[in-house]
Here is the input.
Amino acid sequence: MGAFLDTYFLLCVYLILFFFSCSLCFASSSLQSSCKLRRKFHLNEMHKPGDVVLGGLFEVHFTSVFPERTFTSEPQQPSCKGFDTLGFRHTMTMAFAIDEVNKNSNLLPNVTLGYSLYDNCGALVIGFSGALSLASGREEQFLLQENCLGTPPVLGIVGDSYSTFSIATSNVLGLYKLPIVSYFSTCSCLSDRQRFPSFFRTIPSDAFQVVRQNVTGRQWIASEAWTAAAVLQTPRLMPYLSGTLGIAIRRGEIPGLREFLLQIHPDQKDNFAYNMVRQFWESTFKCRFAPPPTGWVEAEGALCTGQEDLENVETEFLDLSNLRPEYNIYKAVYALAYALDDMLQCKPGRGPFSGHSCATLQRLEPWQLVHYLQMVNFTTPFGDEVSFDENGDALPIYDIMNWQWIPDGRTKLQNVGEVKKSAFKGEELTIDEDKIFWNFELNKTPQSVCSENCPPGTRMARKKGEPVCCFDCIPCSEGKISNKTDSMECTSCPEDFWSSPQRDHCVPKKTEFLSYHEPLGICLTATSLLGTFICAVVLGIFTYHRNSPMVRANNSELSFLLLMSLKLCFLCSLLFIGRPRLWTCQLRHAAFGISFVLCVSCILVKTMVVLAVFKASKPGGGASLKWFGAVQQRGTVMVLISIQAAICTVWLIFSSPSPHKNTQYHNDKIVYECVVGSTVGFAVLLGYIGLLAILSFLLAFLARNLPDNFNEAKLITFSMLIFCAVWVAFIPAYVNSPGKYADAVEVFAILASSFGLLVALFGPKCYIILMRPERNTKKAILGRGTTKS
Here is the structure.
C-alpha cells in the first residue's frame, strides 16, 4: 500500500510540473504575459547580457516562508529569509568565472558569455521555478532593474546544490536535453543516464567515497558529509573525534577572485545584481537601505550609506582559504565554456551531427552542447584534470582531512593528502603522514583491528565479503619471494636462483653433479683406481712370467693388449666424475667406446684363434693357421678399432656432447649433466660394442665343448655372458635415472663389465701362476692337452 501511495504521489507531482511547464510555454506567447508571470514569481535574480547565456541556481538565502493559502484573496508569494553569505559568494564566483572567460582571448574568441543567476531560497519550489524560467526565457534583449526582463533561453545551467533539487530539475529539463552541471549534488542516483540524460557534475558521486564497509573502532573514518558539517567540529566533541580521518570536497585556488569580490558595491551604475548586492550589504554591515527592498531582509539598525568598506569588516565572504564549492562552480563554468568553444570550432562537413553538420552561434541547441560536454577534457590552473565519464560524473578527487586540536583550544581540519582518479594514471593516493594527528597515546599510527601486517615472505589475500583491512597473509610459493611488508604479490626468482626458506630473498640454486667429494663419487673413484691397480698388478705378473708356459700358451701379445685396454676402461670411468665441462663431455664417451672396442676386439680375436688352432689340430687343417698369425691378429684389432673411431669422429663433428644446466629434475637445484648431443650417435657407439660382444659370445659358445686343451673358450664364454648381462641391464637403468645418477649408472656398468672381464679371463691364470706353479710347466700344460697358440 505504501509503494502505491508513493507512486501515486510522484505521478501527481509530475503532472503538476507538466502543466506548470506548459503554462510557462503558453505564457511566453507575448512579452507582456512573460513579464506578468515573472512578477508573480518574484524571483531573486541577477543577469548579464551576452551572445550566449549560461544559467545558475544557488542558495543565496537559507530558507523560505510560505504564507497560508486560503484562496479567498490573491495568493502571496513565499519570502526568502536568512541571507547566506557563502551562497552569495558561490553566485559571485560564477559571475567571476564568466568574466574571466570573456577576458581570455584563447577561449571563445569573438563570443561574449552572459548569465542569468537565480536564488533558490533553500526551497525546491522556488529553485524549480528558477530553472523553468531559465529554460523558457525570451529572445528579446532584457533591460536592467525595475523594467520587465525579457531574457533569452540559456544554453546550460550550473547548479543546483542539493541532490533533491537537481533530481527534480533534471527530471524535467532532461526531457529537453538542457545540460545541467551541478557543483554540489553527490547522490549516486544522478549517474543514471536513462533518467538524467543531460546531467553532469564537477563534484564526485557518493559512489566514489570509500563509506561503505561497517568499519568501527577508536579511529573514525569520516565521509565527505562529516567534514562539511561544522556542528561535528566543535571543541566538546574533540575528545571523541580528534584524529578523525576523512575526505572533503577538493579545495582549489581561484586567482583574482578576491579582487573581483572587493569590487562589489551597491551604488555601481552598471550594477548587474541590484537586489542581491543590497541584500548582501545589509546582511554584512547590519544596516538597511531606505526604502528597503520588497520583503527580502528584515534588517534592523542604521541606514546603509554605501560608504561601508568590505575590507574593514570581519566576514567569511572574503575568507578564500577554503574554496571548495566555489572551485567546483569555477570548473563547471569552464567545462561549459570549453564545450561551447569546441562546438563553435567545428568545421562544416566534419561535424558530429546529422549529415556531418555543425552547430552555429545563431542556432545553438542545448542538446548539441550535451554532446561536446560529454567529451570535454581540460586542466585547471590548480593542476586538476576535468572530464566526465559516460554517466556525467567528474573524475573523483578528494582532499584527505585530519581533525586536529590547536594549542589555543580551537579545532581545525588539516589537509594531509589527496585521493584522485586520473584518466591516464588511474587511482592515486597521496598522504603526508607527518601531518596526521592520531588520537592515541604517544600519537602513534593505529594498527588495524582486523589483520596484522603481512611480513616479508608472504602476500596479502583479501577476505571475501570483508573490509579491505581484513586479509590473510599467504606464504609465497616455492621459487617466489616478497621482500617488503604488506606485499600484494610475490615475485619470481631469476632462473638460476631459488627462494630462501623464509621466502624473503632469492639465493643461488644448489648445483648437483657426480662429485669427487660425495660418498658415491668417492666409492666409484676408489673402485676405478682399484681396477686400474689390479690391471697393473696382473700386467706386472704376466710381464714377469712372460716366458712361462701359462703366459706363452694364452697368446701373450693379445693378453698384454687386453690388459692395457681393461686398464683404459677403468680409467675412462673417471671422466664421468666431476663437474661436466666441454672437453670431458666430448672425451668421456669417445674414450669409453674406443677402450671397450679394443677390449672386446682382443677377446674376439683370441676366440677366433682358439677355433683356428682346434681346426688346425685336425688332419689337413694346418693351412688355417696362416690366416691367424701375429700380423693378422694386430690388423684385425686395428680395423675393428678404426670403425669405432670413425663413429666417434662423426658423432663429435656433427652433434657433439656438451655440458647442460638441467632444471627439470628439481626446481631448487641445477643439475649439471652432459647431454649426448645425438642419441643416434650414442646408440651406434653402444650398438657396435654390443655387436662385437655378441659375436665373441657366440664364437666362444660354439667352442665351449672343445677338448680340455682348448678350455680358454669357456672362460671367454663366461666373461662375455657377464659383459652382455651388465650392458643389457644398463640401458633401462640409464634411461630411468635422473641427473648425476645416470652418470653413476654408466660408471657402474663400465666398472662391473671391466671387473667381469678381468676376473673371468685372468683370475684362473694368475691363480696357477702364483698359487700352483707346478702346473705352470710345459709338461703339465701339454698333459692337460693345452696347445700353444
